[in-house]
Amino acid sequence: MSEGVAYLGPSGTFTHQAVVALRPSADAAPVASQAEALDAVDAGHASYAVLPIDNSVNGVVVPTLDALLERPALSIVDSVVLPISFDAFTRDPSIEPHVVVSHPHGLAQCRSWIESRGLATRESSSTAAACRDLGPGEIGIGPAICGSLYALHTVQSAVEDNAAAYTQFALVAASTLPHVSAAGDGDDGLLVTILPDANVPGILRRLLEVLEQRGINMTNLVTRPVPATPGLFVFLLFLSGSFSADDVSAMQEEWAALGATARAVGRISPLAELAELAERH
Hints:
Number of helices: 10
Order of helices and strands: EHEHEEHEEEHHEHEHEEEHEEHEH
Radius of gyration: 21 Å
Shape: elongated
Mean pLDDT: 90
Largest sheet: 6 strands, mixed
Helix content: 25-40%
Number of strands: 15
Oligomer: single chain
C-alpha cells in the first residue's frame, strides 16, 4: 500500500519536488496551506506532510513553524534541501514569445534573464500555475518538475539571478518524539521549542546557558507569541550537532528546573550545512 503525503500545493511547486525527493513512491496530494497538510497527518488521512521550513534568502517559513507549534502530536522525521532554481518553459516553441508569466517572487528572482530578452511580464498565483496555464507566445518560469508535469518545452534551465538560493523542506509524521539514535551518532541537528512559565528578566539567557554548558551550537533562534497568553513567547531553537534520546531528556529536565517546558519538534540539520553538502553532490 502506497504512503500518502500531503504537501503545500499546487502541483509543480518546489514543495512538490521535495515530496519526490523524500518519498518518491508516495501518493502526493496538494493542499492549500500548511495547517491543512498537518491536519491531514493528524487525522490519519496522510502518512506524512512535506512543508518548507527554511530558506537561505528569506529565512524561516513562519506559517510552517506556527502550524507545527499548534500540533504537538506531530514531529519532523526527515528533511531535504533543494536549490531554488527556475527553468523557462513554453508550450509551443515555434511561436515567438511576448510575455513571461510567473509568481511575483519568480519574476523578481529571474529579472536579469527576462530583461535581457526585452519581454513583458505577467504575475500568476504561483510558479506552477503559470506553467500549467501557459498560452501561445507565453514563457512560464517555474521549477524543473513543471516541464514533465505539464508537457512543456524547456527554453532554458537555471534562469535565476541567484544560483546560491536553497530551501529546506521538512517531512512531518505523527510522532511525539524526534528520530534520534540511542547513541546520537551523526550530525542530525535538532529543532526544540521552549515555553517559559512566565516572561521574566533574564529568562532567555538562563535557558541558553543549558546549551553553552553542553557545548551545543545554536544556528538560529526564532521567537513566536503565544496567542492564548499575551506577553508570553515560545522560543524555537535550531541546534547543530548529534543528539541521543538521553541528551534530549536531560536538557528537558534542566529547562523544566528553570521554569520552562521544552519539546523536541524533530530532526532538522542546519540549512547552511545541508546546502554545502548538496553543492558537493
